[in-house]
Amino acid sequence: GGSTRGELNVLLVGDPGVSKSQLLGYMNKIAPRGIYTSGRGSSAVVDKMSDNARSMLHEVMEQQTVSVAKAGIISTLNARTSVLAAANPVESRYNRGKNIMDNINLPPSLVSRFDLLYLILDDVDEGKDRQLAKHLVSLHFESVPEPPRSRIPARKLRDLVAHARQTCHPSISDEASKAIVDAYVDMRCRGQAMGNKRTTISATPRQLESLVRIAEALARMRLSTSVEARDVEEAVRLMKSAWASAAEPSTGVLDMSLINTGVSEASRQNLKQVEQAVAEVLRKVDSRAGTLQQLGTLVEDQLGFSVPQETIAQGMQALPNVTVRGARWSKTGRAV
């Protein structure tokens, strides 16, 4: 069998000013071998990257290699690295009425390669706002307050990470193996919960591999030689909290089709329903041309709910013998 990557990839998506860059900078300090970059061509701020740089990341994040072509010679180099990236919403602030893929300017093929995706939103919370304000104001004191004793110094934490990576290679116990299988099956079944008639994909083999990687990382944090059931339990909790952002806003159901393809199962089924309604309406109308607005009214009357004009156009484009140009449509054959 082929080898699988053992490094975790994490994506942070959030409003401006929530310290995403600060988190990336601190992680660079505690990583034994880390590189922090930003701007175009960056592996940190992925929404500002060029298309060429993004395509290179696909190979790095999945195969853990990078191919370099020079003077007709292609060399494949090892790139066993973890990627911690940050991205801003396309509308500057996160739009809760849209799904995660509509909020970020990243292709599904790249987003699906992240093991964890966290939303960091700038919500109003008096307690947290006061705590943050006190901390920022304290940085301007002549004598900076001493950090809490419970905080581990960055140098010591970096040494601990390096030691764990070099000396700990935990194996999965029988108990943990069963727990991972059960957790994956449970995640798959959640798509059919609550009387859901659609075949919603709530987990894929990529999520199964992510569970294994996260559980192994948790065991490595404890400097343990074995992955235990408690590591799997915490890995499941982390995954559920991270990928909760992939839930479809209209249904609240976790849909990994949204991450893998950019289109949720609910949207796909809705479009299919619109296509059928458009075809039925076109069979009934006598005219061979008209406006999308007029056709949309007839389609909405048949479906019983409002449909955006762009969805009407998208549904018509899937039909034979129909042409859509701008805000108008026309039949190009005898039948639809």
UniProtKB/TrEMBL annotation:
<dbReference type="GO" id="GO:1902975">
    <property type="term" value="P:mitotic DNA replication initiation"/>
</dbReference>
<dbReference type="Pfam" id="PF17855">
    <property type="entry name" value="MCM_lid"/>
</dbReference>
<protein>
    <recommendedName>
        <fullName>DNA helicase</fullName>
        <ecNumber>3.6.4.12</ecNumber>
    </recommendedName>
</protein>
<feature type="domain" description="MCM C-terminal AAA(+) ATPase">
    <location>
        <begin position="1"/>
        <end position="136"/>
    </location>
</feature>
<dbReference type="InterPro" id="IPR001208">
    <property type="entry name" value="MCM_dom"/>
</dbReference>
<dbReference type="GO" id="GO:0000727">
    <property type="term" value="P:double-strand break repair via break-induced replication"/>
</dbReference>
<dbReference type="InterPro" id="IPR031327">
    <property type="entry name" value="MCM"/>
</dbReference>
<keyword id="KW-0235">DNA replication</keyword>
<dbReference type="InterPro" id="IPR027417">
    <property type="entry name" value="P-loop_NTPase"/>
</dbReference>
<dbReference type="GO" id="GO:0042555">
    <property type="term" value="C:MCM complex"/>
</dbReference>
<keyword id="KW-0238">DNA-binding</keyword>
<dbReference type="GO" id="GO:0003697">
    <property type="term" value="F:single-stranded DNA binding"/>
</dbReference>
<dbReference type="GO" id="GO:0005524">
    <property type="term" value="F:ATP binding"/>
</dbReference>
<keyword id="KW-0067">ATP-binding</keyword>
<dbReference type="Pfam" id="PF00493">
    <property type="entry name" value="MCM"/>
</dbReference>
<keyword id="KW-0547">Nucleotide-binding</keyword>
<dbReference type="GO" id="GO:0005634">
    <property type="term" value="C:nucleus"/>
</dbReference>
<comment type="similarity">
    <text>Belongs to the MCM family.</text>
</comment>
<dbReference type="InterPro" id="IPR041562">
    <property type="entry name" value="MCM_lid"/>
</dbReference>
<dbReference type="GO" id="GO:0006271">
    <property type="term" value="P:DNA strand elongation involved in DNA replication"/>
</dbReference>
<dbReference type="GO" id="GO:0017116">
    <property type="term" value="F:single-stranded DNA helicase activity"/>
</dbReference>
